[in-house]
Amino acid sequence: MARPEHGELRLRVLMEPRHGATYTDILALARATEDAGFDAFFRSDHLMGVDPQDSTYRPTDCWTTLGGLARDTHRVRLGALVGAATFRGPGLLATIVASADEMSGGRLELGLGTGWYEREHAAFGLPFPPTGERFDRLEEQLEIITGLWRSAGDASPFSFQGKHFSIDDNRTPPRPAQRPYPPIIIGGTGPRRTPAIAARFADEFNGALGGDLRERFEVFARACEAIGRDPGQARRSVVLPVACGADEAEVRRRAEVIGSEFMRTNAAIGSPGLVTDRIASLAQAGADTVYLHIYDIHDLEHIALLGTEVLPHVTESVPAAAGAVTPQRRPE
C-alpha cells in the first residue's frame, strides 16, 4: 500500500466520540471516511470521556479496534492521535502496531504521547507517574519501539537498558509491513521536551489545537536543527474541530455536539466555504496535514458533506497557498 505523496496537503478524520462507541459505530465512520475520499481515519486513545461522571460512555481499546479496521477497510491510513504511552509497554506496543500494520497491508501510523488524563488512569488501575517521568518513559519507549522495528529489517539482535525499561537480546522482533517502519507522530503544546523528542523520532509533528501554531512549528524546527536534522524531513499537522453544515440548522446541530468551550473556540463552525478558508489559514501557518475532529460519530452525512464540499476545494487550491515542504523519512 503506497503512502500519500509528500508535499500534498492531507485531510484526515479524527474520531473522538463524546459517549464512546461500539466497533460497529467506529467501522461505519471509518468506511464513510474512506468512501468520502479522505486520506486517513484516526481515533483517540481513551478509556474514559471528558466527563468522568458520564456513565453512558462506552470505552473501547484503541489498538484492538484499529486491528479490526485494518481488515475491514481497504484504502485509508489508520492510527491513533495520539496513543497514551502509559497504557502499554514498549515491546508489546511495537508488536501490536506491527501486527495491525501487516493486517492492513502497510497502512498504520503510530501516534504516541505521554498520556495526560489522570482520572482515567485511576479508574482503570493504570499507573500515572509525574510529568517528568512520563516524558522519560516516552523517550525510552520510542528508543525501544524503533530499535525493535529497525532490527527486524537488518536481522540483528536488539538490547536496551534504560531507567524504566529494558530489552534483553531480542532476536525475534516484530516485523511491520512498512519499511523501515510505520510513520511516527508526536505532538503537543509543550515548549521543550515535546519538540525535542519529536525532533529525534517523529515523521510528523502535530501542533495540537489552539495557540500560536506558527510559533509551535518554529520551535519544532529549532529542535531539529539543534540535533542536525533537516526540519523539512517531517510533516507538520494540526487538529481542527469541525461543525459544517449546508444551512444554519445543520451547523447549529453539529456545533452543539462539540465537546467543550475550548474546542468550540478553536473549531471551524459554519459553511463548507468557511471550513475551507480555515484549513487554508492553517496551511499558511505551516500545516500540511489537518485532522478534522468529529464528535458525533453517527452523523455520517457530516463526513459526506465534508468530502463533497470541502475536500475537493482544499486539494485543488490550498497546497499552492501553503508552500508545502517535501518531507522525507529521516536518515537512520
TL;DR?
With 332 residues, the protein is an alpha/beta fold. Helix content is 42%, strand content 17%.
Question: Can you put this structure into words, describing what you see?
Answer:
Residues 17-255 form the Luciferase-like domain. Residues 173-183 have a biased composition (Pro residues). Residues 165-189 are annotated as: Disordered. InterPro entries: F420_OxRdatse_Rv1855c_pred (IPR019952), Luciferase-like_dom (IPR011251), Luciferase-like_sf (IPR036661), SsuD_RutA_monooxygenase (IPR050172). Keywords: Flavoprotein, FMN, Monooxygenase, Oxidoreductase. With 332 residues, the chain is an alpha/beta fold. The protein has one domain (10-322): Luciferase-like domain (TIM Barrel, Alpha-Beta Barrel). It is built from 12 helices and 12 strands. The chain has helices at residues 23-36, 62-72, 90-104, 118-123, 131-154, 193-201, 213-226, 248-255, 261-265, 272-284, 300-309, 311-322, and strands spanning 10-15, 40-43, 77-80, 83-84, 108-113, 158-161, 166-170, 184-187, 204-206, 235-244, 268-270, 289-294. The strands form 2 sheets. It has an 8-stranded parallel β-barrel with strand order 1-2-3-5-8-9-10-12, surrounded by 9 helices. Strands 6-7 form a two-stranded antiparallel ribbon.
At CATH level 2, the architecture is Alpha-Beta Barrel
Helix content: 40-55%
- Count the E strands: 12
Question: Could you give the order of the helices and strands?
Answer: EHEHEEHEHHEEEHEHEHHEHEHH
Please report the number of helical segments: 12
Number of separate structural domains:
1
Main β-sheet: number of strands, strand sense, barrel status? Answer: 8 strands, parallel, barrel
Shape: globular
- The radius of gyration is 19 Å
Task: Find the structural class using helix and strand composition.
Answer: alpha/beta
Query: Which parts are unreliable, with pLDDT below 50 for 5 consecutive residues or more?
Result: 1-6, 320-332
Q: Determine the mean pLDDT.
A: 90
Strand residue content: 15-25%
**What is the name of the CATH class?**
Alpha Beta
Give the distance, in angstroms, between the N- and C-terminal Cα atoms. Answer: 22 Å
Largest sheet, spatial ordering of strands = 1-2-3-5-8-9-10-12
- Stated plainly, the CATH topology is called TIM Barrel
The CATH homologous superfamily: Luciferase-like domain
